[in-house]
């Protein structure tokens, strides 16, 4: 048995993976990972080690300037043929949707044997989808440490103007040159930190769910994420000075999040209620045809909001009479109506998901969960103590760095935050803080509180 939680990130890639104390073997499909100053120069070597002879290189106008031109030169100098596609400049923020993937498919050179994305969130997401469609591996040169999808096996896409997760394959190579990344816009660097802060809530909720629902949990993976998160928080001051070590810590944490999700085969190590706030806000913006803020910026705000909700929750004691009264008053047709009001045209999919997969509304299952919550309440409080920083301390740090700290700071109002809170419980089948609160019969008080905390 190998303890991988204290290993260097490069050790985590080994082909045979790790037999873990949790009973599973953890491995990632990521084969080449380089993070550091000047590492873009290893690109020819990385391509050779993966047997890639002719990549299809994808940039947008900004990432071409940041790194794409450099990639072209390096490939030219190494005598590696490639086809370059640069997305034309957009008037609005580019969405990872049919139009973007369609543009790539139409420009794709079928002689290519890999897709090499040069960019961050949207480019990486679209390239993974294209690579799956074309049946070739994907590789990525990161341009900003802004989100945790670099090494994940899924793409966060927009399909029919709805937010969906498409599972494809994790990139085979991730190259993050900190000389390039440290020059990214400051809001992108801070968004990356925001996406890392999410791990406080993610690990806390994962442990609580393990107790309440019996969901699989791996302490070694959790340790891996905690250690990386601590490094990012320690580096936060350096990040605003664009110090290479700080940029490296955040880039590494974001890549590690993808590896950890691959290890666990679920998104638990990296995402909790804060990500669901972000998904809900993004879906609302899509519904209205408005652009959203950066994913990581929303996750940072969602983290602080979730910790505030948990701080209120921990002052209460589970009350069987109250939970029973709330359960008795819960009415499925009324819930469906409310869900329609929140989700609009995605409501049918959400209602079907709850009925077929989530089963959270099932009275018997809910009663069982309530029992376990009551029996384990001291342990649940201890998990919150162990995993979470104080909201005031976190807010002070974020404010000091110039990060947004409230939904209103992101241009999102109290009503949308209240609705996002309600929707979070049923948008997927994940047990979250909002599910725990619902099980305790406290949803109405806390949806109110979520709205009040938006300001
Ligand atoms: Zn494990
Ligand atoms: Zn994220």
Could you explain the architecture of this structure?
The structure is a single chain. The protein has helices at residues 43-49, 61-77, 98-107, 121-134, 178-181, 186-213, 219-240, 244-264, 273-288, 295-313, 320-329, 332-343, 347-358, 363-375, 377-387, 391-401, 414-427, 433-439, 443-452, and strands at 18-19, 25-26, 32-36, 55-60, 83-87, 114-119, 138-142, 154-159, 162-167, 173-177. By secondary structure, the protein is α/β, with parallel strands linked by helices. It has two domains: 9-183, Rossmann fold; 189-217 and 268-452, Dehydroquinate synthase-like, alpha domain. The chain is globular, with a radius of gyration of 22 Å. The mean pLDDT is 94. The site of one zinc ion (ZN) has 7 residues, from helix 7.
Short description:
The chain has 455 residues and is α/β, with parallel strands linked by helices. The chain is built from 19 helices and 10 strands. The site of one zinc ion has 7 residues, from α10.
Topology:
Elements: E1 18-19, E2 25-26, E3 32-36, H1 43-49, E4 55-60, H2 61-77, E5 83-87, H3 98-107, E6 114-119, H4 121-134, E7 138-142, E8 154-159, E9 162-167, E10 173-177, H5 178-181, H6 186-213, H7 219-240, H8 244-264, H9 273-288, H10 295-313, H11 320-329, H12 332-343, H13 347-358, H14 363-375, H15 377-387, H16 391-401, H17 414-427, H18 433-439, H19 443-452
Parallel strand pairs: 3-10, 4-5, 4-6, 6-7, 7-10
Antiparallel strand pairs: 1-2, 8-9
Helix pairs in contact: 3-4, 6-7, 6-8, 6-10, 6-15, 7-8, 9-10, 9-17, 10-16, 12-13, 17-18, 17-19
Bound molecules: zinc ion (2 copies).
